[in-house]
Amino acid sequence: MRVTARTFASLRELSAGRCELELGSAATVEDAWSTLQARFPAIEPQRPYVRAARNGAYVAWSEPIAEGDVIAFLPPVSGGASSLTEAPIDVAALEDSLAESGMGAIVTFVGRARDVADDGRTVIELEYEAYAEMADSVLEEIRTEAEQRFGVACAVVHRSGLVPIGEAAVAIVTAARHRGEAYDASRFVIEAIKERLPIWKRERFADGSEWKRPGA
């Protein structure tokens, strides 16, 4: 059978963003990876850090696959939102969308593009690459989970593409009757985004560029 393999960010640079794979009739996601690795041996060391998705949902490596499936191999993610946009984020509009009279606390978190990397190098611009077909559903899951778990209202927007230095890359607004729930929900959302959202950040420096893994 034939399936489509997709890769992103650092993994894409070592292989191909999209390619067709020929597999046996009882193939699994692991088999798809092995076939891709045979074509692009440079990806082999990345295997311990990669997560797999089938048709836009995370799956185990033992997941069976079928003719026509899209199998995505995702390096560690960073950043995220309940919606993606290439336009500047209107933080005030997000806050207004949750400003109901019953909400006594509104907590806003804004992550901005900064001009200094963790290692001290000067950053000249930021770029985010997202697996857009999957990101929207993952973001909605995170937003819904936050609302149900903490009893809040939540809105999140994340930039994709180029983000100029100083502009917002992600904005999270949580609204609740009391501040504790709003703070807790905001922290939950950003941590879930870092762990689960298929989006990657590239910091460009004067002497080159690299894809940055979370915590690096």
Explain what this protein looks like in three dimensions.
By secondary structure, the chain is α+β, with helices and mostly antiparallel strands. It folds into two domains: 2-74, Ubiquitin-like (UB roll) (Roll), CATH 3.10.20.30; 84-212, Molybdopterin biosynthesis MoaE subunit (Aldehyde Oxidoreductase, domain 3, Alpha-Beta Complex), CATH 3.90.1170.40. Helix content is 28%, strand content 33%. The protein contains five helices and 13 strands. The strands form three sheets. Strands 2-1-5-3-4 form a five-stranded mixed β-sheet. Strands 6-9-11-7 form a four-stranded mixed β-sheet, sandwiched between helices. The protein has a four-stranded antiparallel β-sheet with strand order 10-8-12-13, with no helix packed on it. A hairpin with a 2-residue loop joins strand 3 and strand 4. Helix 4 (132-150) packs antiparallel against helix 5. The radius of gyration is 19 Å and the shape is globular. The mean pLDDT is 85.
In short:
By secondary structure, this protein is of the alpha+beta class. It folds into 2 domains: 2-74, Ubiquitin-like (UB roll) (Roll); 84-212, Molybdopterin biosynthesis MoaE subunit (Aldehyde Oxidoreductase, domain 3), CATH 3.90.1170. It contains 5 helices and 13 strands.
What are the SSEs and their pairings?
Layout: E1 2-7, H1 9-14, E2 18-22, H2 29-39, E3 51-54, E4 57-59, E5 70-74, E6 84-85, H3 91-97, E7 105-112, E8 123-130, H4 132-150, E9 153-159, E10 161-163, E11 168-176, H5 179-196, E12 199-205, E13 208-212
Parallel strand pairs: 1-5, 6-9
Antiparallel strand pairs: 1-2, 3-4, 3-5, 7-11, 8-10, 8-12, 9-11, 12-13
Helix pairs in contact: 4-5
